[in-house]
Known about the structure:
Blueprint: E1 7-9, H1 28-38, E2 54-56, H2 61-68, H3 78-94, H4 97-101, E3 106-110, E4 130-133, E5 148-149, E6 174-179, H5 184-194, E7 201-204, H6 213-218, E8 220-226, H7 235-241, E9 245-249, E10 268-269, H8 278-283, H9 287-300, H10 315-327
Parallel strand pairs: 1-2, 2-3, 3-4, 4-5, 6-7, 6-8, 8-9, 9-10
Amino acid sequence: MEKRFKVWVYKEGEPPLFHAGPMKGIYSTEGQFIDEMESGKSTFLARHPDEALAFFVPVSVVRILRYLYKPHMDYHRGRLQNVVTDYIDILSKKYTYWNRSSGADHFFVSCHDWGPDVSTANPTLYKNFIRVLCNANASEGFRPARDVSLPEITIPYKELGPPRLGRAPNNRSILAFFAGGCHGHVRERLFQYWKDKDQDVQVHEYLPKNLNYFELMSRTKFCLCPSGYEVASPRVVESIYSGCVPVIISDSYVLPFSDVLDWSEFSIHIPVARIPEIKVILEGISMTEYLKKQKLVLQVQRHFMVHRPAKPYDLLYMVFHSVWLRRLNVKFS
């Protein structure tokens, strides 16, 4: 892949809506990928569009919302959709690349909840378009054969990821842990049954200031990762960084890099309907099975690390690989 897969970044458009994105915070994987392509240092960067196997549309949904929707925020997707559709219209008239594949070798990256809505205004235009999305919800039109699930990471200032404070498996005294806001119906149900009710399954809405979130994760065997308003959560990656087995609590989340990673080997999936059974389910996992999963969590950590420039097998590299796999399915008429 390293030698053959080349990506052309369209030059049209100007910042802040194009060619740049958020580098820190919860949507930062969007900006990190855009910046990787714009830096000119990526080994996957095509020097001419004729040598490209894929074409990157360098639009930032986060930037569009920041500059076109504020200070008077509303929830009408029209402005967002018009910006991207108009941009693709310009590209399709100026070049032959979009039309020859009907967009099947083109992709964009978005970590914002609104990312999937870019394509809803014109399903025909975007029928083949590869969407790299954090909000990878199979019940809302995410198609794993075409789209790519992007990990959601909260990248802090001056860092490229959350801290790694993992402890040895025999030094983890907490069975299960979660702390976060009551966002969405999944967490509402989680709080209904478990909020501040059990010493083994520690579920909190907000931690006291004397407790450290990441330190608690490092002391936990199983880290609960319930969906929020949307299916993705940065807690999945935070769990992996902490050496904690992620417990995915969602009914329709398509997990990142599932083409090559078997999540059943290093995580637990609990359907939303079985939230009352969390403790029974986790206590039913033998120490042998837990140790096996925890060891694999440590092995897959490298696939969720962000490096700049990207390194083989890290998060950005895995995104390229996921797009490449979908590009292999494209046949030109």
